[in-house]
Amino acid sequence: MSNRRFLFVLGSSRPEGNTEQLARAAAEQLPADVEQEWISLADHPLPDFEDLRHDIDHARPTEGDVALLLDATLAATDIVIASPLYWYTLSGQAKRYLDYWSGWLRTPGIDFQTTLAGRTLWGVTALAEERQEVAEPLIGALRNSAAYMEMRFGGVLLGNGSKPGDVRNDTQALTRAKTFFAQPAPLARYTFETD
Questions:
Q1: 102-138 b/e with 16+ CB inside 10 Å = b?
Q2: Cα–Cα distance for residue pair 44/65, rounded to 1 Å
Q3: Residue 55: its pLDDT value, please?
Q4: What is the pLDDT of residue 88?
Q5: Residues 7 and 69 sit within 8 Å (Cβ to Cβ)
Q6: Dist CA 159 CA 139 (whole Å)
């Protein structure tokens, strides 16, 4: 029996958009005993992040969307950030979710970084641009976040789509989706590191 638990964080303002459809196509390939939790940031919006890193009054949230996302993140072995490519990077909602990681790093009693270390961060994105290299800022943001947290990085599944449902015509992306979560995920390395 698998002990893996996937958290899919949907960062689009559009329900069932191209990015979500691509993420669901990949998730369909997961074994039946792998738990999946799907949270839409449009349905569970986080308030603007307030940077309190130098304050000492950090308390674990106990209710609301912040608590929901924190608990789901801590429970996940695999975190999938499914965000459309907006201006070459993550959507505002997805970026705000990552901003909250900064606060959770300093919340007493949860050992956020220690808990996530060794777990896997994945990305899924649909872009309207044919040149996939324009997604490098989004990929770098996720890879570097995983590296900072000492997580594994499974990479980013890229698909092409602008109008609703377009990604279903991207046969290459749908083929990659079939094996995306089966690929090995090495420990993340910063984008700017060289060998």
A1: ebbbeeeebebeeebeebbbbbbbbbeeeebeebeeb
A2: 6
A3: 60
A4: 94
A5: no
A6: 13
Does the model's pTM come out above 0.90?
Answer: yes
How far is 85 from 157, CA to CA, in rounded Å? 12
**CB-count burial class (<10 Å; 0-12, 13-18, 19+) for 78:** buried
CATH of domain 5-182: 3.40.50.360
Half-sphere CA count of 164, side-chain side, radius 13 A: 6
Radius of gyration, alpha carbons of the chain:
16
- Residue 17's region, left for phi above 0, alpha for psi from -120 to 50, else beta, is beta
- What are the C-alpha distances in Å from 97 to residues 155, 159, 161, 167, 189? 18, 22, 24, 25, 21
The partner residues of 35 in beta bridges, in order of sequence, read: 5
Indicate the pLDDT class of residue 191, thresholds 50, 70 and 90.
Answer: confident
Place 131 in a pLDDT band, splitting at 50, 70 and 90: confident
How many beta carbons lie within 10 A of that of residue 177, not counting itself?
Answer: 23
Report the alpha-carbon angle 182-186-192, nearest 5: 130
Q: Is the dihedral of CA 15, 16, 17, 23 positive or negative?
A: positive
pLDDT for res 5:
98
Q: Hey, what are 162's tokens?
A: 């602008």
Residue 153, judged by CB atoms within 10 A of its CB (0-12, 13-18, 19+), counts as buried
